[in-house]
Amino acid sequence: MEELHYLDAKLKDSVFCAIDLETTGINPFTEKIIEIGAVKFNLEGQIDSFEKMIDPCMPIPHDSIRIHGISDEMVSGCDKIPDIIQDLNTFLSDSILVIQNPAFDLSFLEMEYRRCGKRFRFISAYDTVSLSRRAFPGLENYKLDTVCTHLGIELKHHRAFSDASACMNVFLRAIQKDKTHSKWYLDDLEYYAGPSFRDALIKELRSKKCRGSTIIPGREFMIDYIDSTGNETRRKISAKGIFQRGKQTIIHAYCHLRHEERFFISSRIKMSYSL
Fold first, then answer.
1. Residue 3's pLDDT is what?
2. 251, 215 in Cβ contact below 8 A?
3. How far apart, in whole angstroms, are the C-alpha atoms of residue 40 and residue 60?
4. Which end of the chain is more exposed for a tag (fewer CB within 10 A), N or C?
């Protein structure tokens, strides 16, 4: 579907894909996807499905396990992201995405694609939270389980495929509240659901000015860094990439102190020195 004519397409001729992820944590720069669930559908209902558990090649924190119940043992021996990225890309291609709180899932997908040397491209993504607020006013909140309880939709919350299926059903039930929806164009959906996500949420920068020097990928620096616990260390880094997500800038680098690749929040760099 050409982006120029995207909003001129008829809703009844469009293909959507509801997608949900379970992850090792909430930071797309340092955490990984461990489960993907996706449902391709149109106004008539489900067309196809995609469901995969992923080995993140890192331990799953106990706090995350308490949320989704996915343990290290459950993902051990499963495919890794590079093994399934092409199949996922094929499944999602030419579909309009439907996601509960798209910023979270889109950021994780963008970073996983980048780690595989690919760019995550999508036509647009609609937020079922915004859509539910419009279609079902007056609810206590618009969490997925709350909306599903209101609508009588079965949900095994915090498992990817169940959440994706629920998003599909919430989307369909929401637009069906307007009796003229079968005559809609995507332009009408944009008006009803609110603006869709169309641009990448993570942008790659060529440089980042920090106190002391400007950090550029491909070069080495010494930095005085304050970690999340407030400890300050001086460490040598080899910068690999610079990413911006909202107001936060992250520097991807090889850390010679820890002997591993890490992501550094630029605002925590107290001083930087070019080597």
1. 47
2. yes
3. 29
4. C
Dihedral over alpha carbons 116, 258, 54, 163 (to 10 degrees): -100
**231 burial class (0-12, 13-18, 19+ CB within 10 angstroms)?**
exposed
- 54, 179 Cβ separation under 8 angstroms: no
Per-residue pLDDT, 194? 87
Indicate the pairing of strand 232-245 with strand 125-127: unpaired
C-beta atoms surrounding 113 within 10 Å: 19
Residue 48 has pLDDT above 60, yes or no: yes
In whole angstroms, what separates CA 49 from the centre of its chain? 18
What does the DSSP assignment read for 147-215? HHHHHT----TTSHHHHHHHHHHHHHHHHTTSTTGGG-BHHHHHHHH-PPB-S-SEEEES-EEETTEEE
- Integer-rounded Cα Rg, in Å, for the chain is 21
SS3 92: helix
DSSP 268: G
How far apart (Å, rounded) are the C-alpha atoms in residues 159 and 164? 9
pLDDT digits (tens, 9 = 90+) for 54-108: 999 999 999 999 999 999 999 999 999 999 999 999 999 889 999 999 999 999 9
| Percentage of residues in the chain having pLDDT higher than 90 | 87
The residues spanned by each domain of the chain are: 3-200, 203-274
Residue 253: its H or E element: strand 248-255
State the pLDDT at residue 5.
Answer: 56
Q: Tell me: the pLDDT tens digits for 215-274?
A: 999 999 999 999 988 999 999 999 999 999 988 999 999 999 999 999 999 999 999 999
> Under CATH, which number does the domain 3-200 receive?
3.30.420.10
DSSP β-bridge partners for residue 9: none
In three-state secondary structure terms, 272 is strand
